[in-house]
Write a structure and sequence with these properties.
Elements: H1 9-61, E1 64-65, E2 93-96, E3 99-102, E4 107-115, E5 118-126, E6 134-137
Antiparallel strand pairs: 1-5, 2-3, 4-5, 5-6
Amino acid sequence: MKRTAGFTVIELIFIVLLLSAASIIFFVQKHTIETTARDNQRKTAINAMHYGLEEIYFKEHGSYPRTIDEKTLPFIEPSLFTDPDGVKIGQTAVEIDGTSYPVSSTYTYEGTNCIDKKCKSYTLRATLENEDDFVKTNRHET
């Protein structure tokens, strides 16, 4: 019997199954790495805002602001106020082609016990994809 060079059908099926399994594992791991990176980005932003509120803003004003943004905390990198989805903290809508669409940031800041624009406390929160919410609260009591 004459034998020709090549692969058998069984060998080809095995290779296809092996490559399929490797592809599935790769894409699952890629998704996990990407969501972990976005969660870490959110935690970094919240920690920077928290540090700025505690170490700079509170020391200068003796209270916390009712809301936060680039103007309230100019010493914070402006890009940190925008979540990985591109929504700024406190933003409630985006306008596209003249139509307003509701949006919500994964970052929230809530000043509490406020009189005018001065608050005694706050809660700063990031909604994470793989973990419970990342929450920071005030350290100083006024």
